[in-house]
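Researcher: Let's continue the batch. This sequence belongs to Peptide methionine sulfoxide reductase MsrB, and it's 127 residues. Same format as the previous ones, please.
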Amino acid sequence: MKKTEQEWQQQLTAEQFRVTRQKGTEYPFTGALLHNKSTGSYLCICCQSELFSSETKFDSGCGWPSFSDAIAGRVRYERDLTHGMDRTEILCAQCDAHLGHVFDDGPAPTGQRYCVNSVSLSFEPKP
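Model: Same format as before. Here are the structure tokens for Peptide methionine sulfoxide reductase MsrB:
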């Protein structure tokens, strides 16, 4: 999915654009979906691709929504060497929206912690 910067700016709020298109980060403990405990799916705010299931969400205490796994094929990974760190960035495989980062300190069985900016997601409750 390819859109111009202007098209993304028209579709997204200023904060959504800053995080998803400019690789920003929302302040910890401020995201609307951080404490969401409802059953359903987490979608990319840019293209509505289903990225995470509520079944894999957990409270990591890090200040951002955390998931132990992504839906297969919906997230892609890039090495991120910004800010003097060596991290793995996670992006929407469909539209390249910046979502956050994945770390190897999550719960079993995956051992992964997908640390995701709440503003990069929308939530679709399960009927």
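Researcher: Any comment?
Model: The CA atoms of residues 37 and 54 lie 8 Å apart.
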